C-alpha cells in the first residue's frame, strides 16, 4: 500500500513539473512542434503546448497550385509570430520555423558532408538555381562529372547534391551535383567490385553505344558488351538490340581487377546453336534460309539466328561463266540449298544451289561423241584458247593450236570474238574432270595432209618466196603449206654469208624440185639446183637426140646420092 502511494505521488509530481514547464513563455527564435487540430478555409489551428493553441495562415501550408500539404494530426514546426494576436489564439509562423529548421539541417549536412536532395528550379547566370529548402546556387561546372552542353535539361529534376559553401548570415548556399554523383559512383563502384567475378550474371544499364559495342553501367564501373557478344546471330550495329537507358542482364566474360576492365556477353546466357548444328543440318539435306550478305566469292545464308552457311560462287550454277553471286541471289532473298559440308568447330557450313539440279556432266557421254560437230557461243578467251558454251553448264576449250591449220595464231582474238556463235568438232570428252576439248580447224581438211597425199620426192612444184632466213628461203607452195629451199640448193651461191646478197628475194615465184618430204614433221625440202640440173640434162638429151637425128639424115642423103650415081 505504501509503495502504491509513493508511485502515485511520483506520477503526480511529474505531471506537475510538465504542466509547470508550459507556463514559461517560449523564446522568440525558438522552433516549436505542434499538432494540427483543425483546418479551416483560411487557417490551420495548431496545439503547440504551453496550454495554448495557435493559428497559422493556411497559405503557409499550400503549394503554388493551391494544394494543402497538411492534414489533421500532422506534427509541424512553428514559431510564435510577434504582432496582433487573434482572439483566443497565438499567432504562429510555419514559414519562419521551416526556414530555421532548413538552415539547421543544411549546417549539419555541410559539417558532416552529407548528400541531400534538391530540385533544379531554373537557369541563372553561370549555373542553375536549386531548391534545397532555400534557394541555392549550383555553378555549371558542378552540374555533372562530365561537361553538360545543355544545362536546361536538368531543370525540373530532383538531383542529389553536396554543400560546398554555406553562409547562414548572408543566406548564401552553393551546392554541387558533381561531387554527390562522384561519391555515389565511388560507393557503388566499391560495392560492385566486391561482388564482381568472371562468369557472374549481373544487371546493368546501357550507358553508351558505339559502332563496336555498348558500354554497360554495372554500378560505378562500366563494362564493354562487344557487338560480337550480343547475339549468335548477325548484328550490324548494337542499336539493333539495345538502346541507351535499357536495363540488360549480361554475363561477365573477363574481369581485370587491376585495370578495372570488364568484358560482358549477352549471347553467353543462351546455348550455343553450333554445338548441335551437325545433328540438325546433316550433309546432303535440303535447307531453307535467308540471304544476309553477298560478297565477290559467294553468299551467306542465315539458317537460324546465329547459324549461317556459305554458298560459294562455284556452287551456285553448273555453268562456269558466273561472274558475281549478285547475278543469282540478293540480300533478303529466301533460298533453298543443299548442305555440302558441316564444320562445327570452325563454325562453317558449306551450301550449294547447283546441287538442286542434275549435273549435266553426268550424261554428257551419252549425249555427245568424239568427232561430232557442235555449235556454241564464245564465252571467254585466254592466252591459251577460247571457252565455248555448247549448253547451260557445259563449256568446251578450243586450244589456240586448234584454231587454224594454216594461220599461226598467237591469241584466240585473232580468229574469234567474244559472243560469236561458232561450230567446232569434239576432240575429247572427260566427264569426270568436267573437261571438253574442241577444235575449229578440224572442220576443214588439213592442207598439209592433202599436199603429202598428192606430191612425192622429185616432183616439180611452183612456189613463191614468202620469207628469208640466214640459211635459206621459205617458199609458199599452197595456202598454209611451206617448204624450205636451203641456199646451198641455189645455183651460183658461194655460201659466204654476209659477203654477198641472198640469192633469192621475197615475192619471187619460180619452180622448185621436191628433194625431201617428212609428213610427221611437216617438212618439205626444195631445190633450185636440182631443177637447173634437170634442165641441163634435158637440154643435153635433146641435143643428143637432135645430133643423132642429123647423122641419120646425112647418111640417108649420101646413100641416096650413091644410088643415083649408079
Instruction: Label the structural class.
Output: alpha+beta
Please state the average pLDDT score.
84
**What is the total domain count?**
6
How far is it from the N-terminal to the C-terminal residue, by CA? 228 Å
From the alpha-carbon coordinates, what is the Rg to the nearest angstrom? 57 Å
Which features would summarize this protein structure in a list?
30 strands; OB fold (Dihydrolipoamide Acetyltransferase, E2P); single chain; 566 residues; alpha+beta; 6 domains; 5-stranded antiparallel beta sheet; 5-stranded mixed β-barrel
Characterize the structure shown:
The chain has 7 helices and 30 strands. The protein has 566 residues and is α+β, with helices and mostly antiparallel strands. It has helices at 2-21, 94-112, 177-195, 277-280, 364-367, 447-454, 529-565; strands at residues 32-39, 43-49, 52-57, 75-80, 90-93, 115-124, 127-131, 135-139, 158-167, 172-176, 201-209, 213-217, 222-226, 247-256, 261-265, 286-294, 298-304, 307-312, 334-343, 348-352, 373-381, 385-391, 394-399, 421-430, 435-439, 460-468, 472-478, 481-486, 509-518, 523-527. The strands form 6 sheets. It has a 5-stranded mixed beta barrel with strand order 1-2-3-5-4. Strands 8-7-6-9-10 form a 5-stranded antiparallel sheet. A 5-stranded mixed β-barrel has the order 11-12-13-15-14. The chain is rod-shaped, with a radius of gyration of 57 Å. It has 6 domains: 20-99, Nucleic acid-binding proteins (OB fold (Dihydrolipoamide Acetyltransferase, E2P)), CATH 2.40.50; 113-182, Nucleic acid-binding proteins (OB fold (Dihydrolipoamide Acetyltransferase, E2P), Beta Barrel); 196-269, OB fold (Dihydrolipoamide Acetyltransferase, E2P) (Beta Barrel); 273-356, Nucleic acid-binding proteins (OB fold (Dihydrolipoamide Acetyltransferase, E2P)); 360-443, OB fold (Dihydrolipoamide Acetyltransferase, E2P); 447-533, OB fold (Dihydrolipoamide Acetyltransferase, E2P).
Amino acid at each position: 500500500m505504501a509503495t502504491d502511494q509513493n508511485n502515485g505521488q511520483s506520477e503526480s509530481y511529474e505531471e506537475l513539473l510538465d504542466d509547470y514547464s508550459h507556463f514559461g513563455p517560449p523564446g522568440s527564435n525558438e522552433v516549436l512542434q505542434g499538432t494540427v487540430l483543425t483546418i479551416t478555409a483560411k487557417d490551420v489551428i495548431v496545439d503547440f503546448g504551453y496550454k495554448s493553441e495557435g493559428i497559422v495562415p493556411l497559405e503557409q501550408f499550400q503549394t503554388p497550385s493551391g494544394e494543402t500539404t497538411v492534414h489533421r494530426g500532422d506534427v509541424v514546426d512553428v514559431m510564435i509570430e510577434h504582432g496582433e494576436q487573434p482572439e483566443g489564439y497565438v499567432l504562429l509562423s510555419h514559414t519562419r520555423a521551416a526556414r530555421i529548421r532548413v538552415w539547421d539541417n543544411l549546417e549539419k549536412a555541410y559539417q558532416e558532408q552529407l548528400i541531400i536532395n534538391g530540385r533544379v528550379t531554373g537557369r541563372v547566370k553561370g549555373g542553375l538555381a536549386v531548391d534545397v529548402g532555400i534557394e541555392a546556387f549550383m555553378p555549371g561546372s558542378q552540374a555533372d562529372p562530365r561537361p553538360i552542353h545543355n544545362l536546361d535539361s536538368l531543370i525540373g529534376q530532383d538531383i542529389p547534391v553536396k554543400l560546398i559553401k554555406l553562409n547562414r548570415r548572408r543566406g548564401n548556399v552553393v551546392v554541387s551535383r558533381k561531387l554527390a554523383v562522384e561519391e555515389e559512383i565511388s560507393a557503388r563502384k566499391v560495392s560492385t567490385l566486391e561482388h564482381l567475378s568472371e562468369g557472374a550474371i549481373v544487371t546493368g544499364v546501357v550507358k553508351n553505344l558505339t559502332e563496336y559495342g555498348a558500354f554497360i553501367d554495372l554500378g560505378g564501373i562500366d563494362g564493354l558488351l562487344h557487338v560480337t557478344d550480343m547475339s549468335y546471330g548477325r548484328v550490324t550495329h548494337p542499336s539493333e538490340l539495345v538502346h541507351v537507358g535499357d536495363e540488360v542482364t549480361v554475363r561477365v566474360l573477363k574481369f581485370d581487377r587491376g585495370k578495372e576492365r570488364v568484358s560482358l556477353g549477352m549471347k553467353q546466357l543462351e546455348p550455343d546453336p553450333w554445338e548441335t548444328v551437325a545433328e540438325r543440318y546433316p550433309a546432303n539435306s535440303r535447307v531453307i534460309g535467308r540471304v544476309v550478305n553477298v560478297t565477290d566469292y559467294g553468299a551467306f545464308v542465315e539458317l537460324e539466328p546465329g547459324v549461317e552457311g556459305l554458298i560459294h560462287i562455284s556452287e551456285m550454277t553448273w555453268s562456269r561463266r558466273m561472274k558475281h553471286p549478285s547475278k543469282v541471289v540478293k540480300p533478303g532473298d529466301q533460298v533453298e540449298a543443299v548442305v555440302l559440308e558441316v564444320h562445327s568447330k570452325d563454325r562453317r557450313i558449306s551450301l550449294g544451289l547447283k546441287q538442286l539440279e542434275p549435273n549435266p556432266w553426268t550424261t554428257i557421254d551419252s549425249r555427245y561423241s568424239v568427232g561430232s560437230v557442235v555449235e556454241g557461243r564464245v564465252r571467254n578467251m585466254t592466252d591459251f584458247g577460247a571457252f565455248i558454251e555448247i549448253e547451260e553448264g557445259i563449256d568446251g576449250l578450243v586450244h589456240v593450236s586448234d584454231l587454224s591449220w594454216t594461220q599461226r595464231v598467237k591469241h584466240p582474238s585473232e580468229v574469234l570474238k567474244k559472243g560469236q556463235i561458232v561450230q567446232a568438232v569434239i576432240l575429247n570428252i572427260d566427264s569426270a574432270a568436267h573437261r571438253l576439248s574442241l577444235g575449229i580447224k578440224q572442220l576443214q581438211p588439213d592442207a598439209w595432209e592433202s599436199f603429202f597425199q598428192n606430191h612425192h620426192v622429185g616432183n616439180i612444184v611452183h612456189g613463191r618466196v614468202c620469207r628469208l632466213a640466214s640459211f635459206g628461203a621459205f617458199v609458199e607452195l599452197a595456202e598454209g603449206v611451206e617448204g624450205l629451199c636451203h641456199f646451198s640448193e641455189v645455183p651460183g651461191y658461194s655460201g659466204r654469208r654476209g659477203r654477198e646478197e641472198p640469192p633469192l628475194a621475197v615475192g619471187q615465184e619460180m619452180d622448185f624440185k621436191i628433194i625431201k618430204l617428212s609428213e610427221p614433221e611437216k617438212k618439205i625440202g626444195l631445190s633450185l639446183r636440182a631443177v637447173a640440173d634437170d634442165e641441163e640434162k634435158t637440154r643435153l638429151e635433146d641435143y643428143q637426140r637432135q645430133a643423132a637425128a642429123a647423122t641419120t639424115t646425112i647418111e640417108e642423103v649420101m646413100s641416096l646420092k650413091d644410088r643415083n650415081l649408079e
